[in-house]
Amino acid sequence: MKKAYKILPVYTGDVSGFASALYELGGMLVIHDPSGCNSTYNTHDEVRWYKQEALIYISGLNDIDAITGNDNKFIGDIVRAAEDMKPKFIALANSPLPYLNGTDFKGISKIVEDRTGLPCFYVQTNAMHDYTKGASEAFSAFAKKMLKPSGKKVSGGINILGTTPLDHTNTKFVIPEGKTLVSNWAYNSSLDEVLKATQAELNLVVSSTGLAAAEYMKEAFDIPYELLGNYLDVERKKSRNYIVGEPVISGYIAAQIKKIYGADLNVIATTEITGGLLAECDRKCHGEDEIKQSLSDAEMIIGDPLFELISPKTARFIRLPHFAMSGRLFRKEIPDLMRLEDYYNEP
Amino acid sequence: MQITDNDRIRIADASFPKPFAGGLEFNAPAHGTWNIVHIGFKIPKAHQIYICADNCMRGVVMTAAEMGELNRFSSVILEEDDMVFAGRLEESTIEGVTDVLNSLPEMPPVVIVFPVCVHKFMGCDINFIYDELSKRFPSVKFVRGFMDPVMQKRGTTPDQRLRKAMFDIIPEGEKDGSVTVMGCDMPLSKDNDIRKLLEAQGVTVRDEASCSSLQDYYDLGKCSSVICSYPAGLLGTTAFCKRIGRPLVYMPFTFGYDEIDDALSQIGTVPVFNGRVSCDRVAAGLKTLLGDTEIAIDYTAVPRPISLARFLIEKGFNLKRIYLDAVDPDEKEDFDWLAANAPDVMLCATMHVKGRRPLRAESDQKILAIGQKAAWFEGTEYFVNMIEGGGLYGYAGIKAFLKLMEDAFIVPKDTEDIIPRKGLGCSSLLC
Q: In the predicted model, is pLDDT for residue B49 greater than 80?
């Protein structure tokens, strides 16, 4: 059964993805939820919470307000908090109960915007998807609401899109010679930085969470985009060696291994956004049973250590901890993904 | 008294029992308190199955993962289509749980199934789900779990109801003269007068927090009387005692001498010799060491934080702040005493939006915190790392508590490493 997970955890959810994406941009992020989303996020899905300030709150929705559709409390609480905390913008996220009762988030955003004078937008979530969906929606909603065309261009300027700590916990991107970093969306970043994004000449998508914003910027501001390392240009053949995880990062690593060692790896994409991100030899899997089935003939697997729980004992397993899967369990082992030599050795 | 919109208020000006207005909620990165997953695992050999959406699932499954208990935990994920078609939610729940149980290497004797807020809102026939599962798996004892925080603002919390459901499976046993202590997650400490005095009288004490086998757990029902030691366990313990016809004494860890004497007399122990005097002596020694060091406490450390605050003030300590979001109605007398005798003690909310501000660790002032939340808000590495009273009780408990304050004052802790860890006292794979 697709919906049953006997032993594997689920990935970080969409609401946490939303919060992670916008964490450093100075906004007030409000999750319309009774309780739990905030604690789950800051415990298991966020490395910055202990020390780095961010205005992320839940609404504390109760049963009566949910049943009667009382949005006034939600709106009033947001407006009061905005007066206290002076955010740069406000972003709202949904959860199962407001999703079920059809809460009008776009309407609420408009009212909040009128009452606070701050930009306010809705990020489409409902807690029923993984983090890639939430972070992707957050980046693109932010771009649509906040970005303005720029009269000037930075020569060789690039934006890096999709750098949340959920995927790139310890990754350090090296800017190629002749290129200039305009903005980073949005880990070790700032609002001022990302607002300059339309000055760039190129967007570099470093995880699936950055794809939708790249597509929007291409359409709205005529900024082309590339996938990390143009990994789809590297031809890979069918193989029983697999890399399991997020498709852009997995595809990039598979391409690097092919280029350096000549070995073919196939990507088993286990996160939601995969459109246009997989090669022909790759596949998308949903749920523990499907992933387990896909790995059943494996000779070698690269993946988060938790995937070893459902991998054949005969397969060689190379540990590549992924914060959005195993959270804090192997955090100290998470490598810089750009340094292949730190986590992969040819057999 | 007014309920304040601010994040802190003098106790003399504070409304009882709810000092703070509701609003958006902040969550501090202190996670030593137990959640429903930790609590559920107190039943030895129990398997837990949660039925909820991805984002809700993440918190509970990672709790189990960090405990190293993934082999006793499974998930059934709800998706949009479960909420569109009539009857789909029941079907997904039943078939999902069935699929999980059929795939386990061994059928667990007890399974706690956790429906969520969505089940409630969709008008899901919960009884049908449990009836059907019991028919399909007659050897399994199903416990109804709760993960519906949408209900907790106006009624009981999910963990209160979970504890009750867990106690509901304990059979009534033949009375053997023992005393069962239940409701608290912390095992009874050696510095607990309940245990010390009863055992000195030859009475067997069974501790719900220390059961090492399922039989031990079921044997809790053989007692002749029951002691509840923690507020969140009172709902379940009361129902348990009513069902099996046993007397109940409620004895949360308190710092009031009269209350201790009264409670100990109710369970028939001999009076503690020199209890008050020895506590006063230890407190005076600690006061000499601490001098005017500022002290902050929070509600997660002990079940009666206001009682602790009063004790500290009475003994001359420089208590400045109490972190809590509401006050236990049972603490009215101590609250009123503090309002009259220490009016400038500040009550500080832990969930208020203003809680999200940079740490104040840069302060040169040494602050002693009692509890993890107080440690985080104060930005101090000098803190008593305790939840739920740490299994302490009575005069022995107070003296042990004062010793922990002394240790905390002398030896700094790695606050950033310690307090984000979940479930103090549980196993943890985090390194």
A: yes
Mutation to test the A interface, candidates B58, B120, B157, most A Cβ within 10 Å: B58
Task: Give the 3-state secondary structure of B216-257.
Answer: HHHHHHHCCEEEECCHHHHHHHHHHHHHHCCCEEECCCCCCH
CA distance B394 to B194: 7
Domains and CATH numbers, chain A: 14-146 (3.40.50.1980), 157-229 (3.40.50.1980), 235-342 (3.40.50)
Chain A residues with CB-CB distance to B26 below 8 A: 38, 57
Taking an 8 Å cut-off on Cβ atoms, the answer to whether A60 and B25 are in contact is yes
Residue A36: both structure tokens together: 């739990």
**Cα separation values, A175 from A154, A160, A229, Å:** 14, 10, 12
Query: What is the least distance, in Å, from the CA of B175 to any CA of chain A?
Result: 40
pLDDT at B121 over 90: no
The answer to whether A97 faces chain B, any CB pair under 8 Å, is yes
Q: State CA A78 to chain mean position distance.
A: 25
The β-bridge partners of A69 are none
Could you read off the pLDDT of A33-53 as tens digits, one per residue? Answer: 988 778 899 999 999 999 898
B359: pLDDT strictly greater than 70: no
Q: Provide the number of CB pairs (under 8 Å) joining chain A to chain B.
A: 200
Residue with tokens 């837990």: B48
pLDDT tens across A297-326, in order?
A: 999 999 999 999 999 999 999 999 999 999
Residues of chain A contacting B65 with CB distance shorter than 8 Å: 9, 306, 326-327, 329
What angle is formed at CA A108 by the lines to CA A103 and CA A113, rounded to 5 degrees? 165
Sign of CA dihedral A258, A327, A315, A270: negative
